[in-house]
Design goal:
Structural class: alpha+beta
Oligomer: single chain
CATH topology: Metal Binding Protein, Guanine Nucleotide Exchange Factor, Chain A
Helix content: 10-25%
Largest sheet: 5 strands, antiparallel
CATH class: Mainly Beta
Distance between the termini: 16 Å
Strand order of the largest sheet: 4-9-8-7-6
CATH architecture: Beta Complex
Number of domains: 1
Order of helices and strands: HEEEHEEEEEEEHE
Number of helices: 3
Strand content: 25-35%
Radius of gyration: 17 Å
Number of strands: 11
């Protein structure tokens, strides 16, 4: 099973049913608050094997950036992330979600192996999964003319991971769709 899920901020895994009910109750309350404060974006690959919902803080517009590395440049990637966003990914065929890890080995780039769309990157930092979206995989996305180019050349591994944990999406769920 393809699952990556972390506990919500401030909640530790519950040891008893009573604690689990408290966690569930808090999650429902937090979920209702997020419903009012979040906007949703849909995205995915071309063939429909991978779909996702990106829930973004209502009071922020999408922040876009290009990475200047050769990998991102060759893929035409335009990234967006917000530390308080929520990413929920559903994969129909987990075997067709390819991952690529390059040079620094600090992140996986996720592609649909069927239609080859580059969707997002993930980085596991201190046991927590973080993600950044390739905005080109958002439904109906049209890139503006001037997008800031970021250069991370020379960044230490520690600095890179610290930056990601501050700026990337910190609530990431990736699941395989249930087949009927």
């Amino acid at each position: 099973m393809l699952t990556s899920r972390r506990c919500p901020r401030g909640i530790e895994p519950a040891a008893s049913a009573s604690c689990q009910n408290q966690v569930h109750s808090r999650n429902l309350k937090v979920g209702l608050e997020l419903e009012r404060e979040m906007q949703e974006f849909q995205g995915g690959c071309h063939c429909g094997n991978v779909v996702y919902t990106l829930r973004w803080p209502l009071d922020y517009s999408l922040v876009l950036a290009r990475c200047s590395c050769t990998f991102c440049t060759k893929h035409g990637a335009i990234y967006t992330a917000h530390r308080n966003a929520i990413l929920s990914v559903t994969v129909k065929d987990a075997g067709a979600l390819a991952r690529y890890k390059f040079e620094t080995e600090t992140a996986y780039c996720h592609f649909c192996a069927r239609c080859h769309v580059y969707l997002f990157a993930t980085s596991k930092i201190d046991g927590q999964e973080y993600a950044v979206i390739n905005a080109n995989s958002l439904k109906d996305f049209v890139a503006p003319a001037n997008i800031k180019v970021m250069n991370f050349e020379g960044e230490t591994i520690a600095s890179r991971l610290a930056r990601r944990s501050r700026t990337w999406i910190g609530d990431v769920t990736i699941v395989e769709a249930k087949h009927r």
